[in-house]
Amino acid sequence: VQLVASGGGLVQPGGSLTLSCVVSGFRITPYALTWGRQAPGKEREELATIGTDGTAIYADSVKGRFTISKDNAKNTVILQMTSLKSEDTAVYSCKWRTTWGQGTQVTVSS
């Protein structure tokens, strides 16, 4: 099983980024998947979870700014991020059950 996130980078405050998490080793269709992040010196925070029916739930910190979706054909989970703030700076990764994948760095700075 592998979950590999990509799409991170440096973005200015107020900007947008779209992250992708490509999953291998199982089909994502029958499972819920979660995006989370970990900033330096802080605990990992779960941000968004998408269920098998496409229903999504969000942490208050990103509600209204981030959107989680999935492409079953590409076995990929996507996180669209808008109105980014400096406090969104972190390593972002996705989770299946209790397994966290390889992350991608997002830095929000002017």
List the helices and strands in order.
EEEEEEEEEEE
End-to-end Cα distance, whole Å, is 37 Å
Oligomer: single chain
Estimated structural class: mainly beta
The helix tally amounts to 0
- Low-pLDDT regions: none
User: Given the C-alpha coordinates, what overall shape results?
Assistant: globular
What integer value in Å does the Rg equal?
13 Å
Q: What is the helix fraction of residues, given as a range?
A: under 10%
* Mean pLDDT value: 97
Strands, count: 11
- Percentage beta strand: over 45%
Q: Major beta sheet, specifics?
A: 7 strands, mixed
Written account of the structure:
The strands form two sheets. Strands 2, 4, 5, 6, 9, 10 and 11 form a seven-stranded mixed beta sheet that branches. Strands 1-3-8-7 form a four-stranded antiparallel beta sheet, with no helix packed on it. It is built from no helices and eleven strands. 0% of the residues lie in helices and 52% in strands. It is an all-beta fold and 110 residues long.
What's this model, at a glance?
The protein is mainly beta and 110 residues long. The chain is built from no helices and 11 strands.
Task: Spell out the key features of this protein.
single chain; 110 residues; mainly beta; seven-stranded mixed β-sheet; four-stranded antiparallel β-sheet; 11 strands; 0% helix; globular
